[in-house]
Design goal:
Blueprint (H helix, E strand, L loop, with lengths): L12 E3 L43 H7 L7 H10 L2 E6 L5 H11 L7 E6 L2 H14 L8 E5 L2 E3 L6 E5 H10 L6 E6 L7 H15 L11 E6 L4 H7 L4 E5 L6 E9 L7 H14 L4 E5 L3 H16 L14 E7 L5 H5 L9 E7 L12 E6 L2 E8 L4 E8 L2 H9 L7 E7 L1 H7 L14 H9 L16 H13 L11 H6 L6 H12 L3 H10 L12 H16 L6 H11 L5 H6 L3 H22 L13 H13 L3 E4 L5 E3 L6 E4 L14 E9 L3 E9 L1 H5 L2 H6 L6 H5 L4 H17 L6 H10 L1 H29 L1
Parallel strand pairs: 1-9, 2-8, 2-9, 3-6, 3-7, 4-6, 7-8, 10-17, 11-13, 11-14, 12-13, 14-17, 20-22
Antiparallel strand pairs: 4-5, 15-16, 18-19, 18-21, 19-20, 21-22
The chain binds adenosine-5'-triphosphate and magnesium ion.
Organism: Falco tinnunculus
InterPro entries: DEAD-box_helicase_OB_fold, DEAD/DEAH_box_helicase_dom, DNA/RNA_helicase_DEAH_CS, Helicase-assoc_dom, Helicase_ATP-bd, Helicase_C-like, P-loop_NTPase
EC number: 3.6.4.13
């Protein structure tokens, strides 16, 4: 059971004291104030032990030896040894991610199972693993390895395994007791990613169970971060101990540039200005700029490049040793190889400038970075209950996120963080902590994972922050609509197949449908292409942009010019090497290469499933294009929309949201020729745009659409609690039978309303009403104008 430490109710803290006689590591600057313990905290007065045996003198190892965490090595190891749960906090850069797993390994704590360390992001997972392998003088993939989605660099002997939290969650599916691991470290917990939050609950549950017979030693769990809501987490883990590591490797000066006020919502132009100011006026040292997304980043890089070209280094640059600027973008959908480029040192005299999304805000050390430019914004996936979709939105970052960003500047020397916003913006617009992902995104995949782990009561699961019940019910409804769970809330066979794929459920449904029709060759490449970076190059230069657009149009015309999914398949099938082909068509070769590798891995999963005797088998007579679109319908019928007035479409999921086709789609400007469409995802600027679109026929979705309205989310609340009574099932079956007999649906008034919305006459009426309103508006507007004239 959960241990309750002596001072129950209050979290016991170790205050690791700073030895005043020891010089501060690495920098002449003064140490930050010693962190204060909370009122109930107990200082165990731990002081530095004797210096421990030094590793061989390699620069990476030497750096590790000078970090603030080093002097607390012994206390840390003992604390982990003695306690099942431990929280470790410490300034950014103090050495938590790279050093603690190493200490535990060297102290023999990996004897009975590996040390698994989770990171919320792929790029940090790989780079931290690389650093630790370097410090330990071993090959990456041997004692120290990593595993991220579609890339496993570990062996049976790997003792320190860095992985994304999503990967660990998937491993729990195969091995619910995590019997391969002796210690699990959930790192960068402040990010509160969906997977980390679920892992908190699962690991807590794991401790409530009996020790499995095949486990020699008890599992240990360590939660780490620099900017964490410590008390809340400690309470969650039975008032577990909190260990704070004082000191930072190097100080970072935080400067408010006052360029953004609370009313501003964008900041790329200011970011470029401040970056150039730093380049011209500050001493040597690399720059890390935080912007919101791929498009903003590419645009800012182009602008920076243009401006940097006209710099006269003889007169304009203050530091004479700086002779050039190397500009590198960094965002999540880039291939791993491309991401790795940012870590390479710039040539002598050249200042490196990395322009990144939030993926570089946490855990990452980019050697040489001394300046951070913080735009104050982040692109965040938020579930919009009104629209019923997960939407990417630009929102202000939290204060803890800003501290993480600033922390990137003080890793290998002292630094400065330029906050584009004002103190007023900081106080009024930025929350203290980021809203946990579990409270703002779709829970469909996670709920399916929990159900597969036999956690049926998904409402009373131990969440650190409980998601809203209606979000859980929405997820259950979606799973029910996809046929992944049954009316009793149990996972169906299809659900068991779905959970095997590291893809969103709708895409997986389409893949499985294709495999059942023996045409997975059509869908696997599409699934792979949708899982990697955008393959279409969109150059910043307007002339080149036009040229690229024409070539992209050509690629879609080759397959009929009316299906974005088919265009992706066409590219995948046509291009086999980094030939002139990619250049001609403005296609990212490296993204395609990743898609080839992803496709191979998905193919392996599907081949295994197809060998199962109960894997569905179906037949279909029809053209290849129809076959493809039918398979897509099987997965995306939740994302179906019908044309409403003018160029707008209305979603059919019960929310009836008005959406537009995104300009990047081949169907943009062809809206009036369309009736029914399905789409892959949604983005919001001034309007709601759907991306990756395919036209479908009503007959293909007709039988699937009733599923969308068949069940009210609240009808599933008992499913969420695993209390489905026989009476409920009988009632439900009776309703179903009645429906079948009457040939129409006996549903709630709400559902009838939704169904009415879908019939031809009501759509025509709605269109007429819209046109009438439009005309009235136009008249209303021209009235005053005429008067003014
Ligand atoms: N790839 C690297 N190149 C150079 N130095 C590195 C590298 N990785 C880590 N370091 C050094 O090790 C220090 C500790 O890094 P580590 O990632 O362990 O810190 P952390 O405490 O986990 O910080 P954060 O809270 O920001 O994740 C860095 O401040 C830096 O000095
Ligand atoms: Mg870290």
């Amino acid at each position: 059971s959960l241990p309750v430490l002596p001072c129950a109710g209050l979290c016991a803290r170790f205050l690791l004291t700073q030895d005043p006689l020891l010089p501060r590591p690495g920098t002449p600057s003064s140490p930050g104030p010693l962190p204060k313990a909370s009122p109930g905290a107990r200082s165990l007065g731990l002081t530095r032990g004797p210096p421990e045996a030094g590793p061989p003198p390699c620069p990476a190892v030497m750096a590790g030896a000078a970090l603030p965490i080093r002097r607390h090595r012994r206390a840390l190891v003992e604390a982990v040894r003695e306690r099942p749960f431990l929280i470790v906090t410490g300034e950014t850069g103090s050495g938590k991610s790279t050093q603690l797993p190493k200490y535990l390994f060297e102290a023999g704590l990996a004897k009975h199972g590996a040390i698994g360390v989770t990171q919320p992001r792929r790029v940090a997972t790989i780079s931290v693993a690389q650093r630790v392998a370097e410090e330990m003088g071993c090959l990456l993939g041997s004692i120290v390895g990593y595993q991220v989605r579609f890339d496993d660099c570990t062996t049976e002997d790997t003792a320190i395994k860095y992985m994304t939290d999503g990967c660990l969650l998937r491993q729990i599916l195969a091995d619910p007791l995590l019997s391969k691991y002796g210690i699990i470290i959930l790192d960068e917990a402040h990010e509160r990613s969906l997977s980390t939050d679920i892992l908190f609950g699962l690991l807590k549950k794991l401790f409530l169970q009996k020790k499995p017979p095949n486990r020699k030693a008890d599992m240990k769990v360590v939660v780490m971060s620099a900017t964490l809501e410590v008390d809340k987490l400690s309470e969650f883990f039975g008032d577990c101990s909190v260990l704070h590591i004082p000191g930072r490797s190097y100080p970072v000066k935080e400067i408010f540039c006052n360029l953004l006020s609370p009313r501003d919502i964008g900041s790329s132009a200011y970011a470029v200005k401040v970056t150039l100011d730093i380049h011209l006026n500050e001493p040597e040292g690399d720059i890390l700029v935080f912007l919101t997304g791929q498009i903003e980043i590419e645009r800012a890089c182009d602008l920076l490049f243009k401006k940097a070209e006209s710099i006269d280094y003889r007169y304009e640059v203050h530091d004479r040793s700086v002779e050039g600027l190397l500009i590198l973008p960094l965002y999540g959908s880039m291939s791993t190889d491309q991401q790795k480029r940012i870590f390479l040192p710039a040539p002598a005299g050249i200042r490196k400038c990395v322009v990144s999304t939030n993926i570089a805000a946490t855990s990452l050390t980019i050697e040489g970075v001394r300046y951070v430019v913080d735009s104050g914004f982040v692109k965040q996936l938020n579930h919009n209950p009104r629209v019923g979709l997960d939407i990417l939105e630009v929102v202000p970052i939290s204060k803890s996120e800003a501290r993480q960003r600033a922390g990137r500047a003080g890793r290998t020397s002292s630094g400065k963080s330029y906050r584009l916003y004002s103190k007023e913006f900081w106080e009024q617009c930025m929350p203290d902590h980021t809203v946990p992902e579990i409270k703002r995104t779709s829970l469909t995949s996670v709920i399916l994972t929990l159900k597969c782990l036999s956690v049926h009561d998904v409402i009373r699961f131990p969440y650190l922050d409980r998601p809203e019940e209606r979000h859980i019910l929405e997820a259950l409804k979606e799973l029910y609509q996809c046929d992944a769970i049954d009316r009793r809330g149990h996972v169906t066979r299809l659900g068991e197949f779905l959970v095997q794929f590291p893809l969103p459920p709708n895409l997986t449904c389409a893949v499985i449908k294709a495999a059942s029709l023996d045409c997975e060759d059509l869908l696997l490449p599409i699934a792979a292409m949708l899982s990697v970076e955008n393959v279409f190059i969109r150059p910043g230069d307007p002339q080149k942009q036009k040229e690229a657009e024409l070539q992209h149009q050509e690629l879609s015309s080759q397959v009929g010019g009316c299906n974005d999914f088919a265009t992706l398949l066409n590219i995948f099938e046509q291009c086999k090497s980094p030939s002139a082909w990619c250049q001609k068509y403005w296609i990212h070769w490296r993204a395609l290469k990743s898609a080839f590798s992803v496709e191979k891995q998905l193919r392996e999963i599907i081949s295994k499933l197809k060998q199962l005797p109960d894997f569905p088998k179906e037949t279909f007579e029809g053209s290849r294009t129809e076959l493809l679109r039918r398979c897509l319908c099987a997965g995306y019928f939740i994302n179906v929309a019908r044309r409403s007035a003018a160029r707008t479409f209305c979603t059919m999921d019960g929310h009836g949201s008005i959406v537009y086709i995104h300009p990047s789609s081949t169907l943009y400007n062809q809206e009036t020729l369309l009736e029914w469409i399905i789409f892959h995802d949604v983005t919001v600027t001034s309007k709601i745009y759907v991306r990756t679109v395919c036209p479908v026929r009503y007959e293909w979705v007709k039988d699937l659409l009733p599923r969308l309205h068949q069940i009210d989310a609240y009808e599933l609340s008992s499913v969420a609690r695993e209390e489905v009574t026989e009476e409920e099932i009988t009632k439900w079956k009776y309703k179903e039978d009645l429906k079948r007999q009457n040939g129409k649906h006996v549903t709630s008034p709400n559902c009838n309303k939704l169904e009415r919305r879908n019939d031809d006459q009501s759509i025509l009426d709605a269109r007429a009403r819209y046109l009438e309103r439009k005309q009235q508006r136009a008249q209303g507007l021209s009235g005053p104008l005429k008067e003014m004239g």
